[in-house]
Specification:
The chain has 14 helices and 16 strands. The strands form four sheets. The chain has a seven-stranded mixed β-sheet, with helices on both faces. It has a four-stranded mixed β-sheet with strand order 1-2-3-14, covered by helices on one side. A three-stranded antiparallel β-sheet has the order 13-16-15, with helices on one face. The protein folds into two domains: 134 residues, Alpha-Beta Complex (Aspartate Aminotransferase, domain 1), CATH 3.90.1150.10; 239 residues, Aspartate Aminotransferase, domain 2, CATH 3.40.640. Bound molecules: pyridoxal-5'-phosphate (PLP). The site of pyridoxal-5'-phosphate has 13 residues, from helix 4.
């Protein structure tokens, strides 16, 4: 037995991905982290490439991944309870660190309870498995993250039980409601808080208003769900995310510990009943080992930092550097999508030019991601810059100077 025949078939399948422009490039390998010093923020080294790189393609918005307090918390938890849980949650794989993180994140987002997952991806899949049934209709934004869409597929949502509204278009959301069949018992409206390719955000207050208008049509009501993976920790006056920014809180909040909080893992925060149902029904929670205690301890510490003076300072620096970068793009006459989020897209609107600019930045020691068709529609080719709290004023000046050279 061998995979020879399968390998041959896969060659053909991967070739067609490449022809469609959907193949992923080879992965670069980070070999080292160089801590910030004076006017220089953190730098990274890469396998097989000379020099040091500044990352503007990291989701670690508060730059907590290398924070000494997180590392110590992970270290202490590991020494206390080991590197792995030994089993799934319901077979004595639940440690005090898991419970503590669940209580801490629920309190942070202002919900009665929460369950943690290995990632936001598996959280979305778990939620769909928990609250979806044959009488559920799902409504989502056209630009929702892959994990929301995959969750709906895994839970078997039929095509006549879902509606997709044009990005942030409230008129179109109303159309989706008008199309819901009368025998539907519950409607779930689900959307990203921050849209990660664009850095813009969902108008949560207006979405909730429209949902309220429809609430009484359905036996189990209308349930609003935000996946705020790019907002939580990085957005809003105290880092509570897009609900804080928009002044309106959905019924269920999904998020990640792997972006602003700098660690790993995801969560669902909601009512006690929804969270207990997640524990009973979400296969992506039940049948897989949980996060390590090290991850939990580090994520709990990240939340403590967010709620401290230090956290507010990090948030302030994140905002200041984001403003500096956004204003710099305007001064260079470059186009972006306005907004306060640290995801700042530079709209290049041309594939070859996008690739050349990404290469130029790489040669100058700047890591960014270029987005071309079919990841984004033709004409929306762009470079995604992500600012973080450890970037310094001179880091941003340097990146803008690199852009000016190619402009
Ligand atoms: C909206 C959204 N949800 C979920 C995820 C996945 O997060 P995680 O890495 O925790 O699975 C991402 C990451 O890109 C995201 O942007």
């Amino acid at each position: 037995m061998s995979t020879e025949k399968l390998d041959a078939a896969l060659v053909a399948e991967l070739k067609s991905l490449e022809e469609e422009g959907r193949a992923k490039p080879p992965e670069r390998v980070i070999t080292g982290y160089i801590p910030p010093k004076d006017e220089r923020g953190p730098r990274y080294t890469l396998a097989g490439v000379d020099g040091e790189f500044i990352r503007l393609n990291s989701n670690s918005y508060l730059s907590l991944s290398n924070h000494s307090a997180l590392i110590s918390a992970a270290d202490e938890a590991t020494h206390a309870c080991g590197v792995g849980p030994g089993a799934v949650r319901f077979i004595d794989g639940t440690f005090s660190y898991h419970k503590k993180l669940e209580e801490r994140i629920a309190a942070f987002v202002g919900k009665p309870a929460a369950k943690i997952f290995n990632s936001a991806y598996t959280s979305n899949c778990g939620l769909a498995l928990t609250i979806g049934n044959r009488k559920t209709h799902w409504i989502g934004d056209q630009l929702n993250h892959n994990s929301i869409i995959r969750g709906m597929r895994i839970s078997g949502v039929p095509s006549n039980h879902k509606g997709i509204f044009a990005h942030n278009d409230m008129g179109d959301l109303r159309r989706c409601f008008a199309e819901v069949a009368d025998d539907i018992e519950r409607v779930v409206v689900i959307f990203d808080g921050i849209f990660s390719m664009r850095g813009d955000f969902a108008p949560i207050d207006r979405i909730i208003e429209i949902c309220k208008e429809n609430e009484n049509r359905f036996r189990d009501g209308v349930i609003t769900v935000v996946d705020d993976s790019h907002g939580i920790g990085a957005y809003g006056d105290t880092g509570r995310g897009t609900p804080e920014h928009a002044g309106a809180v959905p019924d269920i909040i999904i998020g990640t510990f792997g972006k602003a909080f700098g660690v790993n893992g995801g969560f669902i925060a909601a009512s006690e009943m929804v969270v207990e149902a997640v524990r009973q029904k979400a296969d992506t929670y039940i049948y897989t080992n949980p996060l390590s205690v090290a991850d939990c301890a580090a994520a709990t510490k990240a939340l403590d930092i967010c709620d401290s003076e230090e956290g507010l300072e990090l948030l302030a620096n994140l905002k200041n550097r984001t403003t500096q970068f956004r204003e710099g793009l305007v001064d260079l006459g470059l186009e972006s999508i306005p907004g306060p989020h640290p995801v700042v897209p530079l709209m290049v609107r041309d594939t070859t030019k996008t690739r050349r600019m990404v290469e130029h930045l790489f040669n100058k020691g700047v890591l960014v991601v270029g987005l071309t068709f079919p990841v984004v529609p033709r004409g929306d080719e762009s470079i995604r810059f992500q600012i973080n709290a450890a970037h310094t004023r001179s880091d941003i000046e340097y990146v803008l100077a690199c852009l000016a050279e190619k402009n």
